[in-house]
Amino acid sequence: MPRRLLKRLVPDPHTLRERWFLRPFGARITDPLLWTLHRRGVTPAFGAGLAICFVPLPVHLILATSVAVIWRLNIPVICGTTLLLNPFTAVPAYYFAYRVGAALLHVPRQHFKFVPSWHWFGHSLAPVWQPFVAGCITCALLAGIVGWLSLDLLWRWQVTSRYRARHGTQAA
Question: Which helix (H) or strand (E) holds 41?
Fold first, then answer.
């Protein structure tokens, strides 16, 4: 874990209490579990951040901070993970979610062209919203669970290998 880098980048929790957009969280934002870098806070935050990436609304950071405060997960990790979905990766990720949803619901893929008008939202979006939502939910669950478990296994492997290297023991 790049602890030194993260400690330099992350602001002090007590200074965040004065920020206007974090005032609704009150004193809960200064909870030490939200800011420490231990496995039980970081790995589920990574998984939750990957799951939040598949929410098709532009509320990722607000949702991530709320989830982190409620479940007492690491705030910098969950917010940083949601930034994996950006304007360049959103279209392929959401198209993949649509394809997964269409395959799950056994619906033929619809070819559609986005036109930013109310008529398009009212008529052209109707045949694709169900597979899109089903795919987003499925991809969110799978990405969250796989991300959580893979980072947890990677973290455990790194700790045991460092322990073995430090103590000069070999694998049994």
Answer: helix 39-52
